[in-house]
Amino acid sequence: MTVTGFTRYPAFIDDLARSESGRLLSAELGRRWPETSDELCTIVRYALMPSGKMLRPMMTLHAAEAVGGDPRDVLAAALGTEYLHVATLVHDDIIDADTLRRGKPSVPVAFGIPNAIVAGDHLIFHAFQAMVDGGAAVPPAQVVAAVTALAQAGQDLCRGQVLEAQLVGDLDAGARWYPEMIRLKTGSLFRAVCQIGALLGGADPDVASALARYGEHLGTAFQIRDDLLSYLATPEQTGKPATSDLNNGRPTLPLLLAYDAATDTSRVELLAVLHRRGAGPGDVEWVTALLHEVDAVESARRQMVAHAERALAELAVLAPSPSTNVLAGIAAWMTSEMA
Predict the structure, then answer these.
(1) How far apart, in whole angstroms, are the C-alpha atoms of residue 175 and residue 317?
(2) What percent of the chain has pLDDT over 70?
(3) How many other CB atoms sit within 10 Å of the CB of residue 281?
(4) 3-state DSSP assignment of residue 104
(5) Which helix (H) or strand (E) holds 189?
(6) Which one of 70-79, 225-234, 274-283 scores highest in mean pLDDT?
(7) 8: pLDDT strictly greater than 80
(8) Is 325 exposed, middle or buried (0-12, 13-18, 19+ CB in 10 A)?
(9) 338 three-state secondary structure
(10) The pTM is what?
């Protein structure tokens, strides 16, 4: 299996959301977070619903099924991965002062920063509770291994966030540390969701490790894709402001590649844009033009595709099955054309 480039794959992710697994996750999410007069639960429900693509819990279910497990036995744990993911989004929006998330006001804007902090924390605790909600359906040793995988991912996420903050506005250091930063900040949770699914599905250690590597490479590709979306898609498509990365001086891969290839004059101007920490009139347009001028967009795409192909190679340990096909399809979607 190979990923040869940006292949148009428009319906896949929508079809996945409408699949039996997608409907199962959505129904269970709504059941666990009904409308209520409880203020904290209302905030958490606002953060969770309507849900995004729910890629992470979907991958947990299909990883479990691909190794011979019953996805219904890992349904709660799969939702737990979404809780941790959404918690990081809520906290990220506080850190970055982003006002828009998934096409609506971010949680800090809608409910205030103190409530957003508490809601994010609440989701983290629920994520760990969800790992053990399978009860007697899964052997205790597998549950312990899944909780450990989630805890390791959470620790890596925090390290990645701090590393990213250290690199703000520093394109020289960013070039050195970017791969490690996105491995920690994004790759770690993708790694965990696949590893958790495999462990709870009863996979042997070698297969679980292969699926963990699949997830980590896929998460790395996903972060590069997210970096590119700021310059290739509209805020309506991404659900967040186009200026977010520039406003926060973030060393994303396209910016790092552009800085490496640009003239000295363009480098100085690019640093000035990042140091202003607020994209002024024409800044986004100028940066976008520079990225295309020095081929930074295409270079970033090639790195994204390379990680997706490494992810696909790890699926060789799995027997052919519909769930294996879904995991392969997610990698193909990840590198699909963004337009």
Answers:
(1) 33
(2) 91
(3) 7
(4) strand
(5) helix 188-200
(6) 70-79
(7) no
(8) middle
(9) coil
(10) 0.89
